[in-house]
Amino acid sequence: MGHPLHHSLSPVMQNAAFQKAELPWVYAPLEVTAGQLRGTLAMMRALNVRGANVTVPYKEIILDDLDGVEPEARWLGSVNTLYRKGNKLQGTSTDGEGFLRSLGLLRKKLRGSTGLILGAGGAAKAVAGALARSGVKGFCVANRSVGRANRLVKTIRQRYPRLESSGLSYRESEKFLSRCDWVVQATSVGLKKGDPSPLPLKDVKPTAFVVELIYHHETNFLREAKRRRLGRLNGTGMLLHQGALSFERWTGKKAPLEVMRRVLLECLSLK
Ligand code: NDP
Q1: Mean pLDDT, rounded, of the chain
Q2: Candidates 81, 143, 188: which one to mutate for ligand 1, based on the most atoms within 8 Å of Cβ?
Q3: What is the pLDDT of residues 53-74, one digit of tens each?
Q4: CA angle, residues 80, 156, 130, in degrees to nearest 5
């Protein structure tokens, strides 16, 4: 469920997974307006729909219309997965854990590290929650609207008071870059081909790594990281792992990760 959905690769990835698991299920894009959200949930309950993913722009506003929300998704205020419990629709988020899994070996570098998250929207919230519980020393959140960054940091601090964290403007974050072991680009800047990089990376340490959540094409942020020979990842791994975790929630089966990865990479190579 989202709007717009024409760019979404989740239907093709999840349908391949259902087929591999021999489940006669179908995953269909439901493009709905905000006004149709409540009615769509009622339809899902009535038709015994097993679950759904929720994406832009409903990850935050859907919380109040669900029958229950898991604790981390509730306090972060972002849901990307719905699943059925009896005849109730529960919400959770697999974005944060999907992000951590996508790091692979880089995950080991998180312990005791300091970093910067660019953005304070739904994706940044999930990433911040996951990083807060992954053993980092601290991080700053930089956002165009600094108030939103400060609110996210406040929410994180209430749960993780020992974490060193603050909200910054982009200008302030440029000065902070030289102290960072990692930078996560979680804004939507870069979604349009030709968008500039949200932040120049010239002061980033050569040992730092960067993660771009956008997976549709190579962004200018990632191009600059490549030019500077920084360790880097795009958002394909996060997309894969959040989808695999949603699949496991709906089916109770282990996700066929390799099939899902192959389908995703095939689709991306056609773009
Ligand atoms: P939201 O709409 O919730 O947040 C958008 C963020 O981008 C906000 O921080 C916003 O700042 C910032 N932003 C938007 N336009 C500008 C601009 N012109 N200049 C500076 N900052 C800007 O989106 P999401 O958090 O859901 O998604 C963010 C990105 O993450 C998207 O590109 C999405 O594709 C990607 N994503 C990838 C996933 C994956 O699996 N790889 C999963 C989820 C998301 P402000 O608060 O000031 O408006």
Answers
A1: 96
A2: 188
A3: 999 899 999 999 999 999 999 9
A4: 50
Q: Phi/psi at 2 (nearest 5 deg)?
A: 180, -170
- DSSP β-ladder status, 51-53 and 81-85: antiparallel
How many Å lie between the centroid of ligand 1 and the Cα of residue 188? 4
Distance 1 CA to ligand 1 centre (A): 17
The single residue listed with the structure tokens 């219309």 is: 65
Name the token pair of 2: 């989202």
- Ordered structural domains, the chain, with CATH: 10-93+237-269 (3.40.50.10860), 97-234 (3.40.50.720)
Residue 87's pLDDT band, with cuts at 50, 70 and 90, is confident
Residue 269 to residue 234: CA distance in whole angstroms: 14
